[in-house]
Design brief:
alpha+beta; four-stranded antiparallel β-sheet; Alpha-Beta Plaits; 4 strands; elongated; 5 helices
Length: 147
């Protein structure tokens, strides 16, 4: 969904890099400190970029939760009550029967979902993946209004 803005941002980023890096490289023998400052600036930029990316958290995720059957129903109900689409699958683990919950959600809601699961079943295995293709399935009332 962000192909065009991403492309223009990439053009701007590489142009900026080419001009700044060429200035640093050209003067590196006379002023080696330029290389150090450039490296620090780059590292700080990467750090700030990762903070911003986590804060904005655009996109969708699919969270898999593997838990014992006893806590599965209550976790499932709590997640559905908070507006998440949850699919429940019966599974067989090494030692006993388990339940796998598949939760489709906005990426920015990931910490809240994990907190709910951990508070209700601290031993649950939680795995999350970013989703790039979505078609069909449960659509929350808020998503229907937004469309």
């Amino acid at each position: 969904g962000y192909r065009k803005p991403g492309t223009f941002l990439a053009i701007f980023e590489i142009l900026l890099w080419v001009f700044i890096a060429s200035r640093v490289i050209m003067g590196i023998t006379e002023t080696p400190m330029k290389g150090v400052v450039y490296s620090l600036g780059f590292a700080i930029g990467v750090y700030i970029g990762s903070l911003l990316e986590n804060r904005v958290a655009v996109g969708k995720i699919l969270i898999y939760v593997i838990l014992n059957k006893e806590s599965a129903l209550s976790v499932c109900q709590a997640l559905r009550a908070s507006g998440n689409g949850v699919t429940s699958i019966d599974a067989h683990g090494k030692d006993d029967d388990r339940t796998v919950l598949m939760i489709f959600a906005n990426r920015k809601n990931k910490p809240v979902i994990i907190k709910v699961v951990e508070s209700m079943d601290p031993k649950a295995l939680i795995v999350s993946n970013e989703v790039s293709i979505l078609n069909g399935g449960y659509v929350s009332p808020w998503r229907r209004i937004a469309k």
